[in-house]
Amino acid sequence: MTATIHSLPVSARARLIGVDDMPPLEGGGGGGNSGGMDGIAELTKRVDRVEGRLDKLDDRLRSVELSTTRIEANIAALSVSLDGLVRRVDGVASQALAKVPSGWTMFGLLMGTLVGGLTLVGAAITAARYFKLLPA
Fold first, then answer.
1. Of these four, 11, 72, 75, 118, which has the most CB atoms within 10 Å of its CB?
2. Measured between alpha carbons, how far is 65 from 58 in angstroms, rounded to an integer?
3. How many whole angstroms separate alpha carbon 91 and alpha carbon 84?
4. 104: Cα within 13 Å, side-chain hemisphere
5. What CA–CA distance (Å, rounded) separates 126 from 120?
6. What burial letters (b/e) apply to 8-42, b meaning 16+ CB within 10 Å?
């Protein structure tokens, strides 16, 4: 008993059917009104519309890239400001420690470090909220 292609399940038939067995995508053979290559003008218009959309998309991407560059510059400037602030806090803490009696030196050092650290954390949170990296 031999099986024919029509006796196979649909999924098996789909695997066995080759490209040559598929119906043509367009009827006719081209030329005239047969439906072959008549749509070149329409196809050209479609391609032009797609290229126009791609140009708009490129413009948007350039705008996003420019905004990202500005944000990176602002973050770099903020980093420089925070570094300056850290140096000032360290300077103030060292001056305060110089005036503290020796018994209080360790306590003063810890408090100065704590104040400096909290200042940095507050500045970092403020910067993150400014750049919308954290919810307000």
1. 75
2. 10
3. 11
4. 10
5. 10
6. eeeeeeeeeeeeeeeeeeeeeeeeeeeeeeeeeee
Rounded Cα distance, 21 and 23, in Å: 7
pTM exceeds cut of 0.70 = no
Tallying the residues shown for the chain, one arrives at 136
What sign results for the dihedral spanned by CA atoms 94, 96, 102, 108? Answer: negative
- The amino acid occupying position 17 is I
> 83-106, pLDDT tens digit by residue?
888 888 888 878 776 776 666 777
How would DSSP label each residue in the chain? ----GGGS-HHHHHHH--GGGSPPSSSS-SSTTSSSSTTHHHHHHHHHHHHHHHHHHHHHHHHHHHHHHHHHHHHHHHHHHHHHHHHHHHHHHHHHHHHS-GGGHHHHHHHHHHHHHHHHHHHHHHHHHHTTSS--
In the chain, where are the structural domains located?
21-130
